[in-house]
Amino acid sequence: MFIHIGNDTVIHSCDVVAIIDYHLISSSTIMEELMTESLKEKRVAGPIEHAKSVMITKEMMYYSTLSVSTLKKRASMISTISKLDDFSDEIKELDSEEV
Asked: Which of 65, 60, 57 is nearest to 22 (CA)?
């Protein structure tokens, strides 16, 4: 499944490692180093100036203008949807029997 993280960016939900509040990055030297290193390697996407959160995947870091709670809700909706049973084949069978 995919998650729309804002700014016309969609990522695979299975690639998500972490979703972090952008303001917490400056309070952690490890996160600052990771961000600096990722910027040097050009593995960062999204608008830094309006960022509210950072989505970390296996390959990239994405700045998002959406809050952590919004992204978390979107991610949990995807996991809920993926757990739903698919009854579309049964509905097709019922429709074909009625004809």
From this structure: 65
Distance CA 46, CA 6 (A): 9
Backbone dihedral region of 72: left (phi > 0), alpha (psi from -120 to 50 degrees) or beta?
alpha
The Cα 92–Cα 99 span in angstroms is 11
CA atoms 39, 45, 46, 51: torsion sign: negative
Q: Please tell me whether the overall predicted TM-score, pTM, comes out greater than 0.70 for this model.
A: no
DSSP-assigned letters across all residues of 10-28: EEEGGGEEEEEEHHHHTT-
Q: By the 8 A CB rule, do 25 and 32 touch?
A: yes
Contact (Cβ atoms closer than 8 angstroms) between residue 15 and residue 55: no
Q: What is the pLDDT along the chain (99 residues), one digit of tens a residue?
A: 788 888 888 888 888 888 888 888 777 788 788 877 877 788 888 888 888 998 888 888 899 999 988 888 877 765 565 665 656 565 556 556 665
